[in-house]
Design a protein that fits this description.
The protein is mostly helical. The chain is built from 18 helices and no strands. It folds into three domains: about 200 residues, Growth Hormone, Chain: A (Up-down Bundle); about 55 residues, no CATH class; about 210 residues, MFS general substrate transporter like domains (Growth Hormone, Chain: A, Up-down Bundle). The protein is globular.
Length: about 475
């Protein structure tokens, strides 16, 4: 019996919600985790987050290709099982090292889930409905991301930090049962006897691990320090070796000819630029709201939900429109609106009202949603059936890398212009020269957001460069 396409969407939604929720739910509980294990907030406790993100980013592409070879269902089921079991291990962790290792294992499960989710939806929905389905998936991602900090705070306060991991167990079990019960897709596609490329997988994964380590610690150690420059250089060398090896092997992890497809390449570059530019808002705005305007964290968090809430409302509509009118105009218009939102956000000062902050956030979120669903639809619809796992892996990888580079870029600009130091001094009681500190903070904030606006504007042209092909 053929699985209902809406059943597939529901199954994917369960797994993706769990994975995206866990990416954001842990941050707010780090102080409690640090206190429990009696370690300072920083150092090894940061690896509770870092280990998860580095593992995910390093293996997404490999898992996407693997799903094309052995089947999406087997990767999905194992991903849910690994994620659920490792969540329990995180909850019972007797030591900080045990927790970090369990989070790394959880990252493997999360990567399995995120690498094949869009591919499962692409396979289940025909081209004329795919954009709407991917738009609904975008809503799930937005809800999971926005609910994480709030839900994490409530759970940690009411129970303990361990329950932010235990909560995944029932969700994961439901996901596994529904997948096995309702997903009729075979565990292995017929005629898919292909060889795996372990050398290429190792080169790619190690290159991405070193890149993420450099991006994570560059601000702390110094971007031009020998350690960070060495990590960047080693990552580039390994990536070059990967490309050379892939051109010569008969069974590559990434068939580089996929980039000859202009629709795929231009849409992928546009996706990277969108995350590079727009994630800076979610990174910098908490500092603006809490350090410059002295808002409480819960009030700041409530104000920032305007972005994911707008995305959750607009994404399904923009996906539906892309099914009918194609992705080129919608995606380009979305980045145009997002660029306008970033420009308005770059005009914020210490005297801006809350309503004056809210509407530019809504504009930026609207533009992001208008861009994302049609662009994702274009990426997933531009490749043949036997490559949708690879496309799905690329889609997830550019999101993680774009967000990582965005934090590094915005943080470097904001810090180098004195914004971070000014913000820290403003939070201290009795700080002198308050006006001067506020002006320094505002200047650094505005330049960082304006830089993001320029990057988003470049994305408009890469989006237009995809051509006029309509995805029907």
């Amino acid at each position: 019996m053929k699985t209902s396409k809406w059943s597939v969407l529901a199954i994917v939604a369960i797994g993706v919600f769990m994975a995206t929720l866990d990416a954001s739910i842990v941050n707010i509980s780090l102080p409690k985790i640090s206190l429990y294990f009696r370690v300072p907030l920083g150092g090894m406790v940061e690896w509770v987050i870092i280990a998860y993100l580095i593992v995910i980013s390093s293996i997404l592409l490999t898992l996407g290709r693997l799903s094309d070879m052995i089947g999406r269902k087997v990767i999905w089921v194992f991903g849910l099982a690994v994620f659920t079991a490792s969540s329990v291990l995180c909850g019972v962790a007797p030591s900080l090292l045990f927790l970090v290792v369990s989070r790394a294992i959880q990252g493997i499960g999360g990567a399995m889930i995120m690498s094949v989710g869009p591919a499962m939806i692409t396979h289940a929905f025909r081209a004329g409905e795919r954009g709407r389905a991917l738009g609904f998936l975008g809503t799930v991602v937005a809800v999971g991301t926005s609910a994480g900090p709030t839900l994490g705070g409530i759970i940690t306060q009411a129970f303990s930090w361990r329950w932010i991991f235990y909560i995944n167990a029932p969700i994961g079990i439901i996901g596994i049962i529904t997948t096995i019960r309702f997903l009729s897709e075979p565990m292995r596609p017929s005629g898919a006897a292909k060889k795996f490329d372990p050398v290429g997988a190792a080169l790619l994964s190690l290159s991405l691990v070193l890149l993420m380590l450099a991006m994570t610690f560059g601000q702390e150690i110094g971007w031009v320090s020998p350690w960070i420059m060495g990590l960047f250089a080693a990552s580039a060398v390994l990536l070059g070796a990967f490309v050379l090896f892939e051109r010569r092997t008969a069974y590559p992890i990434v068939d580089l000819s996929i980039f000859n497809n202009r629709l795929f390449s231009a849409s992928l570059v546009s996706s990277f630029l969108s995350f590079l530019s727009l994630f800076a808002v979610m990174f910098l705005m908490p500092f603006y709201l809490e350090e410059l305007l002295s808002l409480q964290p819960d009030h700041a968090g409530l104000l920032l939900t305007a972005v994911p809430l707008t995305i959750s409302l607009v994404a399904p509509v923009s996906g539906w429109l892309s099914d009918r009118y194609g992705s080129r105009v919608l995606s380009s218009l979305g980045l145009t609106v997002a660029s306008a939102g970033l420009f308005f956000l770059s005009r914020l000062t210490q005297s801006t009202s809350l309503s004056g902050i809210l509407w530019p956030l809504i504009v930026a979120g609207f533009g992001q949603a208008l861009f994302q669903s049609p662009n994702n639809n274009a990426i997933m619809s531009s490749v043949p059936e036997n490559r949708i796992g690879t496309a799905s892996g690329f889609l997830a990888t550019v999101r993680v890398l774009g967000q990582g580079f965005s934090v590094a870029m915005a943080g470097a600009i904001f810090t180098s212009l004195g914004g971070a130091k000014a913000g820290a001094m403003l939070t201290r009681n009795g700080a002198h020269d308050t006006v001067a500190l506020q002006n320094t903070f505002v200047h650094a904030f505005q330049i960082a957001i304006l830089t993001s606006m320029i990057i988003a504007s470049i994305g408009i042209f890469t989006s237009l460069a995809r051509g006029h092909k309509r995805q029907d």
